Amino acid sequence: MRVIVNGEEREIASANIGALLGELDYEGTHFAIAVNYDVVPKSRWAETALNSGDEIEIITPRQGG
């Protein structure tokens, strides 16, 4: 299915957020996920289904000055 991840249109096979993170090779636990502008709690990543056309933002913290 086609979705938008961080502003880029992508073809993905994943059915939920947890699977998507694996498909995109995201490692670690320090990031937030929003689907269609709604932040999804980490406890719901495995159960949150993705649909064609969804807009997904993966936000990672950065240090800087």
Summarize this structure as a short list of keywords or feature phrases.
65 residues, mainly beta, Ubiquitin-like (UB roll), 1 helix
Mind describing the biggest β-sheet? 5 strands, mixed
Low-confidence stretches: none
Give the class from helix and strand content and strand pairing: mainly beta
Percentage of residues in DSSP E strands:
25-35%
Write down the Rg: 12 Å
Mean pLDDT: 93
How would you sum up the global shape? Answer: globular
Number of strands: 5
Q: Assign the CATH architecture.
A: Roll
The SSE string, one letter per element, is EEHEEE
Helical content stands at 10-25%
Can you say what the CATH homologous superfamily is? Beta-grasp domain
CATH topology: Ubiquitin-like (UB roll)
Domain tally: 1
Distance between the termini: 39 Å
Strands of the widest sheet, in order across it, are 2-1-5-3-4
Count of individual helical segments? 1
Q: Briefly, what CATH class?
A: Alpha Beta
What is the gist of this entry?
The protein has 65 residues and is mainly beta. Helix content is 11%, strand content 31%.
Descriptive notes:
The longest helix is centred in the first third of the chain and has 7 residues, at 17-23. The chain has one domain: Beta-grasp domain (Ubiquitin-like (UB roll), Roll). β3 (32-35) and β4 form a beta hairpin. It has a 5-stranded mixed beta sheet with strand order 2-1-5-3-4, with no helix packed on it. The relative contact order is 0.32. The protein has 65 residues and is mostly beta strands. It contains 1 helix and 5 strands, in the order ββαβββ.
